[in-house]
Amino acid sequence: MLSPETRSALLSHATEHLLCHLRDEPTPEPPHGGEFNIQAPVFVTLRSRGELRGCIGNLNPTMPLGECVGKTAIESATSDPRFPPVKLGEIESLSLEISVLTERTRTQRDEIVVGKHGVCIESVGRRALLLPQVATEYGLTVEQFLAMVCRKAGLPNSAWTRPDVLLETFEAEVFSVDHVV
Predict the structure, then answer these.
(1) What is the DSSP string of 4-32?
(2) Is the pLDDT of residue 180 over 90?
(3) Which residues contact 138 (CB under 8 A, 6 or more apart)?
(4) What average pLDDT score do residues 96-114 get?
(5) What are phi and psi for residue 55, nearest 5 degrees?
């Protein structure tokens, strides 16, 4: 678990980094030292008035957490292929959520706990991931959650039942800010 101070600093850095990018200003230096130097998978989710506006993550971190959250916030706003890039005029409606993930562990369906575990599926060169909070937000059962991650990967809904499919779970430490500005 990250300290409350680290969580707050990561949220501040992600929002500042995003604002500076959208304003075409130099981005701030990331926080460093201590927990900011941890290398962990991280996702940044943006919502506009409660609706998903962007979500991008890094499953294989190559930089410290302090640096990664700023870059990932920008990617979430500009590179999620499901949405057009966020414009500066939208900033007042945005909320930002950071999910710091644990290591992924190979799993079976009966080991998945809705709301606790996120799911990653991989098969035939396709991979997709859903964060733990997705199942709770949509009120999904385990089977519905697994079908959703299969669809996201471009696989049949029941692909998770095949023995050649890699099914992994992880947990996430999730914290957010309701308004970017």
Answers:
(1) HHHHHHHHHHHHHHHHHHHTT-PPPPPP-
(2) no
(3) 144, 148
(4) 96
(5) -155, 115
Q: What are phi and psi of 164, to 5 degrees?
A: -85, 0
The C-alpha atoms of residue 116 and residue 114 are separated, in whole angstroms, by: 6
pTM of the model: 0.93
Provide mean pLDDT across the span 70-86.
96
pLDDT digits (tens, 9 = 90+) for 118-149: 999 999 999 999 999 999 999 999 999 999 99
Q: Are the beta carbons of 99 and 173 closer than 8 angstroms? A: yes
Which tokens in the block code for residue 141?
């059962």
How many Cα atoms occupy the beta-carbon half-sphere of 150 within 13 Å?
Answer: 15
Q: Classify the phi-psi angles of 104: left when phi > 0, otherwise alpha if psi is within -120 to 50, otherwise beta.
A: beta
Beta bridge partners of 58: 42
* DSSP reduced 3-state for 125: coil
